[in-house]
Design a protein that fits this description.
This protein is an alpha/beta fold. It contains 14 helices and 26 strands. It has two domains: 366 residues, Rossmann fold (3-Layer(aba) Sandwich), CATH 3.40.50; 93 residues, GMP Synthetase, Chain A, domain 3 (2-Layer Sandwich), CATH 3.30.300.30. The strands form five sheets. It has a 15-stranded mixed β-sheet that branches. A three-stranded parallel β-sheet has the order 4-3-5, sandwiched between helices. The longest helix has 17 residues.
């Protein structure tokens, strides 16, 4: 097996009449999707699209999107997924960088429809090789500008295997997700399902619990993949839980889940397994925590199938002692080839066969990893390091604090000091929060300013956009 598209075509014969994808009320079987992919790939060949050519595809009509995704993979073209209604400035940046041979967008470029009206010209399919480039995908840019990440068929296949192994996705799974499909965390769920022969029910709209419940009953959905904000929304509406008798697993895909969220989930849905998945655009799913086995605060679990995860210090020496902070490093086939056209940045994070992620963690004596902070988020208070997430965890223990985010604020005397943005009701007693923080944090870690805000800015995958708060 050398690619996801090869696994998909094998499944199109094994599960010919089985539903592969459901989108916007439309169902398509494995055999029908395979036919569309062959027709689309034939049209690409007729336009002289070949191995290595870049093709931009917009995540709008998702059946067409995944048809194009697989069709490009089949002919060896490199997929560049872009968001629905992408800004003209971001589109221009990506096009200048990747120089695509074709662009598929709803209002510009080529039409999916015109590429699906032709004939299947394949007499024999030749699948792409492991080492060939397969996709160039953008990061979310939570602490800096987004960058483009290049993946091969090898890394994408290993990502699918890690996910399937880590959260129990198999041929009996019917998964639902509405994670942005231009991002790796979104399209990887569907490609994983196609890899194992599962069914994907997908949406590119905000979560509608009433509609989700209808779909759960209609399509026998048994696996949900959510960003943390959607999981919190779900837990706030327990009246819908009667519909969740079919659900076996729920997957939270971004960062570490708040301890209160895990406890609330276990209380409200005790028979459903909750997975917290830690990964990155650069490496996919590398750590998975089954909260039924460990729901300690900050836990991001143990390594998945293809991943070797360890910690290194500032001199890149491996940390072997439990409880000691270090930088997360991973080895395995799922690692990216590199940042696209950014050799210096690639060389900075890839040393030999190891990829250094921009995160700090520690592990316990049982081999569980715990997230501490992203490197760029650490606040330096007169030489002492302050971890924003640790302050946020304390603040969230105060009744009435709905959400919060801690960021650095420039200070003439100390260099930086922590500031805290808080989402709360109008009647919330801010003095109560200040007193609680004073009593539970060392003086240098106490936020020097607390600011009420209507909403914490977050990426489509639920990560705090601290850079946006730095500018406020």
């Amino acid at each position: 097996m050398e690619s996801i598209v090869q696994a998909f075509f094998e499944n199109s014969e094994k599960y010919a009449q089985k539903t592969a994808i459901v989108f916007d009320g439309k169902e398509i079987s494995y055999s029908a999707l395979a036919k569309r992919v062959r027709i689309f790939a034939s049209a690409l060949k007729s336009r002289s699209i070949k191995k290595g050519n870049k093709v931009l595809i917009e995540a709008d009509n998702l059946i067409d999107f995944f048809t194009a995704f697989l069709g490009c993979m089949l002919v060896g073209a490199v997929v560049v997924p872009i968001e629905k209604n992408i800004s003209i400035y971001r589109l221009q940046e990506i096009m200048i960088s990747t120089k695509p041979s074709l662009v598929f967008m709803k209002n510009n470029g080529e039409s999916y429809k015109s590429f699906l009206n032709g004939e299947d010209s394949f007499k024999k399919i030749s699948f792409p090789k492991l080492e060939s480039d397969s996709a160039i995908v953008s990061t979310t840019g939570t602490t800096g500008n987004p960058v483009l990440v290049c993946h091969t068929n090898k890394s994408m296949l290993a990502c699918a295997q890690n996910l399937a192994f880590g959260v129990d996705i198999d041929e009996n799974t019917v998964l639902y997700t509405n994670i942005a499909f231009n991002l790796a965390s979104g399209y990887r769920r569907v490609l994983c399902a196609l890899y194992v022969g599962a069914t994907s029910v997908i949406s590119n709209k905000d979560l509608d619990l009433s509609k989700l419940c209808e779909d759960i009953n209609k399509y026998d959905i048994n696996h949900l993949a959510f960003v943390s904000a959607n999981l919190s929304y779900l837990l706030s509406e327990p009246t819908y839980f009667d519909t969740f008798s079919n659900i076996k697993t729920v997957e939270a895909v971004t960062g570490v889940l708040p301890y209160s969220t895990v406890l609330g989930f276990k209380s409200l849905l005790p028979n459903v397994t909750l997975y917290n998945v830690y990964g990155a655009t650069e490496a996919g799913c590398v750590l998975v925590n089954n909260t039924s086995e460990n729901f300690s605060e900050g836990c991001i679990g143990k390594p998945s199938k293809n991943a070797t995860v360890y910690l290194v210090d500032e001199n890149e020496n491996e940390i072997t002692s439990s409880g000691k902070y270090g930088y997360i490093a991973v080895k395995g086939d799922m690692n990216m080839k590199g940042y696209y056209k950014k050799k210096a940045l690639t060389d900075k994070v890839i040393k030999g066969d190891a990829l250094s992620l921009n995160d700090i963690a520690y592990f316990d004596e049982n081999g569980y990893f715990y997230f501490v902070s992203r490197v760029g988020e650490i606040i330096n208070v007169d030489g002492r390091k302050v971890i924003p997430s640790e302050i946020e965890q304390v603040a969230m223990k105060v009744d009435g604090v709905k959400d919060c985010a801690c960021v650095a604020k420039e200070d003439k005397r100390l260099g930086q000091v922590p500031a805290l943005y808080v989402v709360c009701d109008k009647a919330f007693d801010m003095d109560k929060l200040k007193t609680f923080l004073d009593e539970n944090l060392e003086n240098y870690r106490v936020p020097k300013e607390i600011i009420k805000i209507d909403k914490i800015p977050k990426t489509p995958t639920g990560k705090i956009m601290r850079k946006s708060l730095w500018l406020k």
